[in-house]
């Protein structure tokens, strides 16, 4: 079973990297970009085939390590 | 005063930290490997040095903050033992939950390596008793992720409980503005735990202990810790 975990910064947390990318897009004349926030994607292969177990395990993985809940949110997608 | 210095793969300031501790205490600190489960018996102070643990992968300090030895460090802190994290060590203490908040990328995205003035916010803790309250000390900073961030409630609590240890200032002691190198909230350079026995700070006092290399303003921190009377 494959899963994808997406970690993004919470709203309101300053993201200087996103801002720099936003500025770069503007200087490349890519039009219509009003804001960019950078995040992380983890593609994870799981041994289990049980969806509920996979979701519980990934929640633990996010809360223990993959996301810092002080500044980040996470989302799990079972593929 | 018995000190232990933690070693994670990718740290590079442990020798500097050990030299500074030995100068202040007269005793060679123990070097403790991250995969160990226990601190040496009789440890009074744990120092988490700077560097780039695990190559700063995932987030600075994230992987080291969950290492085996950190459980022992948490227990040591609960017993009232001293813990100090410097630079990557501060990031590790935040990731491990020993200190609140997180260190984010510097406001201007640059790695900053320079001399920096700090204001000593209080001189009545085990880490600062050899300084004067309000004293301006000149140490160095060397970090890419030193921008201290926490939520409003945490910030209010830190300020209200006197848990800001050091703030960035200029050579006249004026805090903030251009003197803030990285965008940290409230110009915070270092914070204490609620019992004031855990300190995390981005600047490097361990590199300012010898007049040959730029000054001795870092000595006060190590001299203060050397007077610690042992954990319960």
List keywords for this structure.
heterodimer; A: 79 residues; alpha+beta; Mth169, Chain: A; 3-stranded antiparallel β-sheet; 2 helices; 28% strand; B: alpha/beta; Rossmann fold; 11 strands; globular
Characterization of this structure:
The complex is a heterodimer of chains A (79) and B (232). Chain A has one domain (2-78): Mth169, Chain: A, CATH 3.30.1280.10. The mean pLDDT of chain A is 94. Chain A has a 3-stranded antiparallel β-sheet with strand order 2-1-3, covered by helices on one side. Chain A contains 2 helices and 3 strands; from the N terminus they run βαβαβ. By secondary structure, chain A is of the alpha+beta class. The N and C termini of chain A lie close together (7 Å). Chain A has helices at 16-27, 51-66, and strands spanning 2-9, 39-45, 72-78. Chain B has 232 residues and is of the alpha/beta class. Chain B has a single domain (3-226), classed as 3-Layer(aba) Sandwich (Rossmann fold), CATH 3.40.50.880. Chain B is built from 5 helices and 11 strands; from the N terminus they run βαββαβαββββαβββα. Chain B has helices at 14-25, 68-78, 88-96, 152-160, 219-226, and strands spanning 3-7, 30-33, 45-48, 82-86, 102-104, 112-120, 136-143, 147-149, 164-169, 188-192, 198-201. In chain B, strands 2-1-3-4-11-10-9-6-7 form a 9-stranded mixed β-sheet, with helices on both faces. A two-stranded antiparallel ribbon of chain B has the order 5-8. In chain B, helix 2 links the parallel strand 3 and strand 4. In chain B, helix 1 packs across helix 5. Chain B is globular. In chain B, 53% of the residues are buried. The A-B interface holds A 13-14, 16-17, 20, 64-66, 68, 70-71 and B 58-59, 62-63, 66, 94-95, 100-102, 104-109, 147, 149-151, 183.
């Amino acid at each position: 079973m494959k899963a994808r975990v997406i970690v993004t910064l919470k709203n309101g947390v300053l993201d200087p990297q996103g801002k720099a990318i936003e500025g770069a897009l503007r200087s490349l004349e890519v039009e219509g970009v009003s804001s960019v926030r950078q995040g992380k994607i983890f593609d994870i292969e799981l041994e289990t085939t049980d969806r509920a177990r996979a979701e519980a395990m990934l929640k633990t993985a996010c809360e223990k390590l993959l996301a810092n809940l002080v500044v980040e949110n996470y989302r799990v997608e079972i593929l | 005063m018995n000190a232990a210095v933690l070693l994670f793969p990718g740290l590079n300031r442990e020798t500097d930290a050990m030299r500074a501790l030995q100068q202040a205490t007269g005793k060679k600190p123990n070097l403790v490997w991250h995969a160990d489960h226990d601190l040496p018996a009789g440890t009074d102070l744990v120092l988490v040095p700077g560097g780039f643990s695990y190559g700063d992968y995932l987030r600075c300090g994230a992987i080291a903050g969950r290492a085996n030895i950190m459980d022992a460090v948490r227990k040591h802190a609960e017993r009232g033992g001293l813990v100090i994290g410097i630079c990557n060590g501060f990031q590790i203490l935040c990731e491990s939950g020993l200190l609140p908040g997180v260190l984010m990328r510097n406001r201007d995205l640059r790695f900053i390596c320079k001399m920096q003035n700090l204001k000593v916010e209080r001189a009545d803790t085990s880490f600062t008793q050899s300084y004067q309250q309000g004293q301006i000390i000149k140490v160095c900073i060397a970090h890419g992720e030193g921008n201290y961030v926490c939520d409003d409630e945490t910030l209010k609590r830190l300020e209200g409980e006197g848990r800001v240890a050091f703030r960035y200032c200029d050579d006249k002691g004026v805090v903030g503005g251009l003197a803030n190198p990285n965008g940290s909230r409230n110009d915070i350079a270092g914070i204490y735990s609620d019992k004031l026995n855990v300190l995390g700070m981005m600047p490097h006092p361990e590199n300012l202990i010898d007049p040959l290399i730029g000054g001795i303003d870092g000595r006060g921190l190590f001299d203060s810790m050397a007077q610690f009377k042992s954990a319960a």
